[in-house]
């Protein structure tokens, strides 16, 4: 997309040039446009407001919307972007020429709660006109249709142009174009496009961005499109402009057709226009409504909170991210985060339109919960057929055909496909042969990982180790079903050893945060107390690894590797919340980790290698699943995720983390990826987990192994209390085991880790209790201030209560 600054600069230069050497104006088309290759190209912001595709496999186009205009369109697969931007230009022919994106106030509507159907309403800031656009994809062919109503509100007549910036075949610098049969056609290698209007074009031209042949530059100079070029035959950054005949209130349809060559693209655009917008849109909506009807009932947690539309859009988003040529391949997002700052001249940048096995696991577990196991099974087939390497590993991510985008190795991405196969009951001999390769790879290469889930650092990661353990236990069960008891025993032995040592590798007792006791993000060598340096590879700087914390350790609970009330997990939450949690206007959100550099700059500029990490709504969902595992409510977390969505009901990757700065709204999406499929999947899965009363993704075979049945809960009370010589700390509460509020029967705490005072008390399983700390000195007893503290002995055999004395 041309940035506003770039566009204004182009117009200013053109106007200045016109003053120096006015060019003759002619309406006669010239043979070929000069100025190739034109200025460099970029993509558009990753903050999409709407998007869509038909459910039918015959329609291999995906459109995206943002800033009131059309953004990237993908064809023929969901990883090939072909359009930089598509928008209207309005002129009075004498005094002004305005880009729709820059000169209007904007509103977006979802026009059907059971379809990815979006309408953009853009009203001129000067009050002169309104443009209303309704988008659909023709289910029978690869065409995007835009029904447009142009209204002159005052001071007509006005002229309307469509400005089309193709960036075909994942590149903005290899396109050629022409006027052909009343359409504007373009091509780059195996991809061609055709732009057509139901009204036809009064004028049409093709040229090169930012040069004299750029129709928008020409139009902006004197507000009249003079010189027209009927071809631009040298590959470059192509720009096409067509004038649409309008009066004071005109409704017409714009078509963008795609094909393997110009003839096919033109035929698709023409056929879609001939069939009409209404027929295509009706079939489009019917396809989406039919898909939703095929799923299980909407969870009560959703209907009771009035979130049905948000839930439906989330599920449609997940399906819409699946490719139609490579079934089961879902890209992470139909975006390129901060694409306006990304070079689009070449084809090397995958953006987020690539397949990560980790993200595909998140999507698939949500789809299983919602009743679309068929989609999850397609994804398992894709993972083990296309992505799995001969050694059993999985790549960091790939294009749809399995070729690498980014080239690192993340061990959780080797484990998650195994867990997914187990969850779907895929234990046949053919699948077992593939699972065995991956499980053997985990045993040989784990538990340390070259990169953990945030893709920037290597070492011992609690979240990665949780996935590895879960993967091995699931693999052991599949092995046993196939009679390979030796492999099953080896996998379980390895997993048990890692489960027993994960805290020793990653739980520091000498950290600089809080009381110094917590899981840190990642440890370079498995010694969490040696203060090794960590370099954050996103501009976040160098730090003592003990000073960098994330909430990835919650995967230990969510994947069944540790009981919900594990004392080390519970001990880490105060540091996570005090360091990473922000209460936004939309509810609680968390950063990935402190010192994160992956986000907009401090002033709100796009991330280009260094910035400030922002809040991630999916982490709110993960925390909600943890709360459920502990028998607590998570409706607050579900509501916060829903509130972070934009007017198109798309939940972002990141939201802005503070009021009044950067050009973004506190608690709303940024220029990162919106929607992020993982975010939408987490919302769906949390809703089903709330109804189930526990995380639905937890593999039962893992939980059964590591969360043993117990007659009572060993509650570890820890309080940070400074005392003088002769003073001692006790805990007393409403249960007999806690002294029944009798200070004489209070439980004494030991001060071996002073100023931390600790004691273990066994409480009956499933009971709620209240308690307080008291200080005794001689015959005197001092109660801490404040209301009674509360706890619940549920969710596991152990629990930890970490407090600070209230004077």
Automatic annotation (TrEMBL):
Protein name per UniProt: alpha-amylase
Annotated CBM20 domain residues: 707-807
UniProt keyword list: Glycosidase, Hydrolase, Signal
Organism: Amycolatopsis azurea DSM 43854
Signal sequence bounds: 1-27
InterPro entries: 6-hairpin_glycosidase_sf (IPR008928), 6hp_glycosidase-like_sf (IPR012341), Carb-bd-like_fold (IPR013784), CBM20 (IPR002044), Gal_mutarotase_sf_dom (IPR011013), GH-type_carb-bd (IPR014718), GH15-like (IPR011613), Glucoamylase_active_site (IPR046966)
Gene3D superfamilies attached to this UniProt entry: 1.50.10.10, 2.70.98.10, Immunoglobulins (2.60.40.10)
SMART domains: CBM_2 (SM01065)
Coiled-coil positions: none
Reaction catalysed by this enzyme: Endohydrolysis of (1->4)-alpha-D-glucosidic linkages in polysaccharides containing three or more (1->4)-alpha-linked D-glucose units
NCBIfam families associated with the record: glucan_glucosid
Protein family: Belongs to the glycosyl hydrolase 15 family.
Listed EC numbers: 3.2.1.1
């Amino acid at each position: 997309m041309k940035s506003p600054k770039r566009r204004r600069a182009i117009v200013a230069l053109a106007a200045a040039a016109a003053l120096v050497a006015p060019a003759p104006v002619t309406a006669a088309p010239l043979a070929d446009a000069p100025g190739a290759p034109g200025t460099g190209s970029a993509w558009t912001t990753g903050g999409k407001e709407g998007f869509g595709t038909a459910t039918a496999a015959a329609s291999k186009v995906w459109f995206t919307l943002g800033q009131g205009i059309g953004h990237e369109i993908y064809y023929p697969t969901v990883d090939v972007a072909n359009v930089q931007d598509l928008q209207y230009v309005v002129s009075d022919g004498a005094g002004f020429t305005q880009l729709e994106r820059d000169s209007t106030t904007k509103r977006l509507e979802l026009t059907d709660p059971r379809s990815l159907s979006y309408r953009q309403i853009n009203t001129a800031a000067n009050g002169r006109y309104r443009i209303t656009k309704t988008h659909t994809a023709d289910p029978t062919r690869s065409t995007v249709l835009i029904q447009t109503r142009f209204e002159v509100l005052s001071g007509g007549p006005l002229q309307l142009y469509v400005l089309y910036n193709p960036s075909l075949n994942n590149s903005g610098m290899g396109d050629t174009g022409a006027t052909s049969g009343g359409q504007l056609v373009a091509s780059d290698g195996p991809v061609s496009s055709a732009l057509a209007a139901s009204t036809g074009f009064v004028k049409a031209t093709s040229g090169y961005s930012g040069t004299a042949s750029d129709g928008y530059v020409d139009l902006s100079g004197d507000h009249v499109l003079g010189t027209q070029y009927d071809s631009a035959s040298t590959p470059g950054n192509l720009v096409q402009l067509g004038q649409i005949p309008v009066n004071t209130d005109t409704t017409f349809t714009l078509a963008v057709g795609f094909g393997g060559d110009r003839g096919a693209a033109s035929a698709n655009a023409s056929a879609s226009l001939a069939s009409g917008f209404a027929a295509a849109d009706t079939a489009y909506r019917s396809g989406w409504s039919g898909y939703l009807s095929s799923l299980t009932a909407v969870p009560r947690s959703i209907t009771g909170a009035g979130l049905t539309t948000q839930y439906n859009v989330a599920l449609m988003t997940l399906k819409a991210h699946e490719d139609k040529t490579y079934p089961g391949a879902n890209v992470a997002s139909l975006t390129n985060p901060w694409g306006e700052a990304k070079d689009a001249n070449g084809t090397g940048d995958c953006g987020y339109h690539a397949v990560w096995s980790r993200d595909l696991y998140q999507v698939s577990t949500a789809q299983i919960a919602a009743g679309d196991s068929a989609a999850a099974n397609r994804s398992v087939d894709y993972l083990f057929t296309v992505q799995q390497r001969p050694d059993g590993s999985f790549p960091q991510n790939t294009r749809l055909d399995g070729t690498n985008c980014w080239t690192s190795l993340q061990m959780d991405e080797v484990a998650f496909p195994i867990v997914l196969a187990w969850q779907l009951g895929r234990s046949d001999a053919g699948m077992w042969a593939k699972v065995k390769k991956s499980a053997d790879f985990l045993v040989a290469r784990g538990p340390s990982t070259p990169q953990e889930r945030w893709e920037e650092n290597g070492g011992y990661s609690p979240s990665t180790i949780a996935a590895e353990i879960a993967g091995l236990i699931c693999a052991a069960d599949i092995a046993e079903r196939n009679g390979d008891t030796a492999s099953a025993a080896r996998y379980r032995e390895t997993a048990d050893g890692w489960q027993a040592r994960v805290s020793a590798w990653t739980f520091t007792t000498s950290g600089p945060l809080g009381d110094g006791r917590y899981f840190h993000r990642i440890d370079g060598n498995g010694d969490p107390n040696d203060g090794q340096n960590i370099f954050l590879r996103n501009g976040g700087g160098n730090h003592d690894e003990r000073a960098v914390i994330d909430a990835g350790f919650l995967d230990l609970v969510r994947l069944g590797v540790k009981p919900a009330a594990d004392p080390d997990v519970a001990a880490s939450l105060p540091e996570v919340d005090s360091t990473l949690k922000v209460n936004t206007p939309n509810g609680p959100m968390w950063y990935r980790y402190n010192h994160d550099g992956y986000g907009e700059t401090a002033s709100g500029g796009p991330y280009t290698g260094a910035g400030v990490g922002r809040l991630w709504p999916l982490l709110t969902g993960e925390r909600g699943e943890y709360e459920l595992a502990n028998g607590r409510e998570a409706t607050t977390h579900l509501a916060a995720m829903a509130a972070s969505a934009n007017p198109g009901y798309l939940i972002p990757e990141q939201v802005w983390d503070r009021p009044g700065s950067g050009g973004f709204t506190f608690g709303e999406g940024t220029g990162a990826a919106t929607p992020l499929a993982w975010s939408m999947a987490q919302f769906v899965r949390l809703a089903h987990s709330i109804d189930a009363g526990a995380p639905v993704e937890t593999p039962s075979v893992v939980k059964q192994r590591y969360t043993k049945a117990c007659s009572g809960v060993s509650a570890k009370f820890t309080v940070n209390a400074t005392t003088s010589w002769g003073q001692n700390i006790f805990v007393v509460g409403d249960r007999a085991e806690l002294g029944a509020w009798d200070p004489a029967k209070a439980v004494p705490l030991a001060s071996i880790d002073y100023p931390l005072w600790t004691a273990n008390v066994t409480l009956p399983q499933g009971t709620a209790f209240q308690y307080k700390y008291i200080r005794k000195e001689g015959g005197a007893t001092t109660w801490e201030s404040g209301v009674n503290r509360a706890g619940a002995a549920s969710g596991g055999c152990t629990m930890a209560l970490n407090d600070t004395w209230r004077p």
